[in-house]
Amino acid sequence: MKLVIVESPTKSKTIKKFLGSDYEVEASYGHVRDLPKTKLGVDVDNNFEPHYVIPRKSRSVIKDLKKKKKEAEEIILAMDKDREGESIAYHLKEILKLDKPQRIHFQEITEEAVQEALKNPHEIDQKLVDAQQARRVLDRLVGYKLSPFLWKKLFRNLSAGRVQSVALNLIVEKEREREAFTPRKYWTIKGFLEKDSQKLEAKLKKIKSKNLKKFTIKSLAEAKEIKENLQNQEAIVEKVKEKESKKYPYAPFRTSSLQQEAGSKLRYSSGLTMSAAQKLYELGLISYHRTDSVRLSKQSLQQARDYIKDELGNKYWAGSFKKYKTKSKTDQQAHEAIRPTHINQTPAQLKKKLSKRNWRLYQLIWQRTVASQMSPAILNKIRIDFKAGNYSLRSSGQTIKFDGFTKIYPTELSETELPKLEKGSPFNIKKVEVNEHSTKPPARYSEATLVKKLKDLEIGRPSTYSPIISTIKRRNYVQKDKNNRLYPTRTGRLVDELISEHFPNVVNPKFTAEMEQNLDEVARGEKDWQKIIKDFYEPFIKNLEKKYDEVPKKDLTEKTDRKCPKCDSPLVKKMGRFGQFLACSNFPKCKYTEALPEKKTGVTCPKCGKGEMIEKRNRRGQIFYACSNFPKCKFTLSGRPTGEKCPQCDSLLIKTKSDKVKCSNKKCSYKK
Fold this sequence. Notes:
672 residues; Rossmann fold; Topoisomerase I, domain 2; Topoisomerase I, domain 3; six-stranded antiparallel beta barrel; four-stranded parallel sheet; 18 helices; 23% strand
């Protein structure tokens, strides 16, 4: 019997289908060794040697694998083809005391790919193991050394992370930009033109042959004067320009672009996107989903071409294989883009076999892959310039001549059809409209745009984008506004201010990007991982020791006029990980604490009819609504109750974070 070990039970079930009775497939359930949680686990005096332990959750798994090992003639380690997968394989080799295990990997979980991998086993790549180990040790040193400093200078239960601190700093800096922003007014002018039955809208573009810029019209009075001058004037067609333009398809997905597009089109968080992609990969439906490459294999290119020609017709085929390139320094051309394993497995065929969440992501990946090999959309653009005294107005429109790739991959292409006009044709300006505008502050980051920013700064890697964001959300350093965009909490701002001022390298994007490049060089065998750690750690720890003495503890307490019910000392407001709370000023002699008064909603609990629904926060800082009659009544809601009843099932209607109103009954589909 040959024993194949993979990371997950879903992956093991998929692979079992392709192997005969001579093989047994077992799962390691992820990492089987890690640094201990209760101590540093890195010997800083012995060349940063890590001390690994087997987590409690992995002990029974290891016990079972040791039994299987005794029965196996051969052991094959089939983890993913990245640093994490290589690291899992290495730790299994060490724990199971495997002499020369066969290491295989594949780009996709299909029978052809698995059988091909079994024919070409190789040794564990120690360079990739070292790169993963270096990242783990580096992050542990920053987290376990810097976090106690935050406890001492701010308050307990805070934590610092190397790459997460950069992401938090980006969000805080964006918020500062918004707060410093001063809106500026400007005006635009639109004319409504008529001639016989023809009607057009045209925007003011020039005054006395000078192009109109955003802030050219400086006041409402000036805008009104222009309006009066234009009203009822004759506008003559001065120029008609018509041209054909093409909109080309997008490259296939890589990890960062998948997270961005799933965020904007499906409203999936980065964590949800990667969870769904992981499931699709393990089911053998898509290729490996942690990649920086946009390359498609020859087989997938041929499948896409055949599908386009057979199902859509030759005119939709690009005419030759479109090969995309990326400027990313981290792209490894041995890897592939995220694509379906078989193009002929259409979303329609899989709709009933997948959960709605996973199916929608599969559809997006399938559409993007096929569309990447299709013809461009062809647009006919027309521009008509009018002359009216000292003023020039412009009317623009476009029509779609050929939908091209948008037939498969829906893309917004607006259509405004304009009439065919001759130069010199006169029109009457029947109405002039003045519109006042105000510049808006820079938009907050969504998860998708934050991933794009991290990618542009070359911070993080495909496997780390999602954990970076989920970590700062879990720590309650950032939250989401009603538009699903990230903003820093008070806790997040305090942490960022302290780290930015005293440990600028930790939040410096350039410094962090250089560290990522160092780790890539370790993965290629060009640098020694322990030297990289040493070069970072020695100045870091020296500065940390200095700051312990120099930086005073920040006093974040606020006085209140209330007394402690236990010892009659004054109650004060203190800061905790999830915001402010009330505590006795006589701490630690008196350890009385109390949550700040809850926000009332004015809505009666529908379950007991006695309590009022009030706003609360859970341990993760997330807002929910609960009955004030707790613990007698344990009724809760995930969204703010509106006080209205659902017209379909009579349950309470709630307002979600994105300001949408829906029924609180999960079995009811009503949305307002």
